[in-house]
Design a protein that fits this description.
alpha/beta, Adenylosuccinate Synthetase, Chain A, domain 1, Adenylosuccinate Synthetase, Chain A, domain 3, globular, binds guanosine-5'-diphosphate, binds 6-O-phosphoryl inosine monophosphate, binds magnesium ion
Length: 400
């Protein structure tokens, strides 16, 4: 069985928790895109862990983890995370493999990320994790791969060349020295993509998406997106094999959040947004920034479902809305005097006015009101839920 889990909004839908839960039925969890811009919080009950680079495999079940060549690796973050899981569960480290062909995020990328975003007419509000620079340099063919660190003098030349291209002054020797110290501590975990594919292609694999479809570089709210195909479309290239997926599970929150800039039709500013943020604990797991909050948007979901190839849905954080008398859900948009409930593209999404329908609120997820909410959403977007998450802990989930 090959399954993908992707976020259906602007990230932070609860993918990490869902992947941890589902991973019990798979041999290996594969990360195929993004880097340490991702922050996946997994609450095991007795401890909590935030994954930035490590796949969210269930650590207690000894599942394999693989970081594919489509991921960009910040060695500081990676080594810190490995240390953390190793302290929590001895031997966890031995379950990890990392593609030698994955690109390295150099410290200067993070500095340039901030500089570039600050020089734009309208900032994107990146996580400053050097993600855009890593993928840009990869495409420019001046990126440094993990395998390049095997030959320090060549790696130094690469770093010097890069500094020349970006016209910045750096101490290549010092950068290399720091990279090598971290690299040597993970060298035994590296594997060629070809070997990883050989070992894994006939196994049960769970592909863990990062960000959300609306942050995908091709189908998201460009330019307010990340730099990869974080949607299911990035899996083949990010794993370096034309894997055939049996199912694509889309994770959606019962409301919407967004970190960083860009259009957000159902955004709640002021007291209402503050209330949702407080109730949902909506602060970035990577940067700590307050997440922008708003109501569920079915028009965007219809668009995202069509493009992501989702086969079923997983709902998260509906428990956060318990206690609301009425819950507004955006069912259509008004644009230039017309009402539409479907989008062909996201070109004018910054100019629409949401049309809300008020759904009855619920006091608990066992209530008929919640059952009706779920049925109504399924009908509106034409897809069924396979799971409903009922709280932050991994085991707080209902299979339908
Ligand atoms: P990800 O990036 O998609 O993995 O999501 P994040 O981890 O950044 O944010 C989701 C947050 O919601 C985390 O703190 C999770 O522990 C938490 N969470 C996930 N599912 C649920 C749920 O159903 N209810 C509640 N209350 N919290 C949840
Ligand atoms: P997870 O996997 C939410 C957002 C940033 C910014 C834009 C570009 O935890 O859902 P980047 O640093 O990627 O160049 O920033 O994308 N962003 C995320 N928002 N969750 C994430 O990851 C995100 N990763 C990037 O806030 O708007
Ligand atoms: Mg997150």
């Amino acid at each position: 069985m090959k399954t993908a889990v992707v976020g259906l909004q602007w990230g932070d839908e609860g993918k990490g928790k869902i992947v941890t839960y589902l991973s019990r039925n798979y041999d290996c969890v594969v990360r195929y895109s993004g880097g340490s811009n991702a922050g996946h919080t997994v609450d095991y009950g007795d401890f909590k862990i935030v994954h930035h680079l490590l796949p969210s495999a269930d650590l207690k079940k000894q599942k394999m983890m693989y970081i594919g060549p489509g991921v960009v690796v910040d060695l500081d973050v990676l080594t810190e995370e490995i240390e953390q899981i190793d302290q929590l569960l001895p031997h966890a480290r031995s379950l990890l493999r990392i593609s030698r062909q994955a690109h390295v995020v150099l410290p200067i990328y993070k500095m340039l990320d901030e500089k570039i975003d600050g020089s734009r007419l309208s900032a994107i509000g990146t996580t400053r994790r050097g993600i855009g620079l890593s993928y840009a340099n990869r495409a420019l063919r001046c990126g440094l791969r993990l395998q390049d660190l095997e030959n320090p003098s060549r790696a130094k030349n690469f770093i010097e060349e890069l500094a020349g291209i970006w016209q910045i002054k750096i101490d290549a020797q010092e950068i290399l020295h720091e990279l090598l110290a971290k690299y040597e501590s993970i060298q035994d975990l590296l594997i060629d993509s070809t070997n990883a594919v050989r070992n894994l292609k006939d196994k049960d694999l769970l592909f863990e998406g990062t960000q959300g479809v609306l942050l995908d570089v091709d189908v998201g709210t460009y330019p307010y997106v990340t730099s990869t195909n974080c949607s299911s479309t990035g899996i083949q290239s990010g794993f370096a094999y034309p894997v055939k997926l049996d199912q694509i599970l889309g994770v959606m929150k019962a409301y919407t959040t967004r970190v960083g800039e860009g259009p957000f039709p159902t955004e709640l500013t002021g007291e209402e947004g503050e209330k949702l943020r407080r109730l949902g604990g909506e602060y970035g797991a990577t940067t700590g920034r307050p997440r922008r909050c708003g109501w569920l948007d079915l028009v965007l979901l219809r668009y995202v479902l069509e493009l992501s190839g989702c086969t079923s849905l997983i709902l998260t954080k509906a428990d956060i809305l318990s206690g609301y008398e009425k819950i507004p859900v955006c069912v259509a948009y008004k644009i230039r005097g017309r009402v539409i409930d479907k989008l062909d593209n996201l070109e004018f999404v910054d100019q629409v006015e949401p049309v809300y329908e008020l759904f009855d609120g619920w006091k608990s997820l066992q209530s008929v009101e919640f059952e009706r909410f779920v049925a109504k959403i399924e009908k509106e977007i034409g897809m069924r839920f396979s799971h409903i998450s009922t709280g932050p802990r991994v085991d707080e989930i209902i299979e339908i």
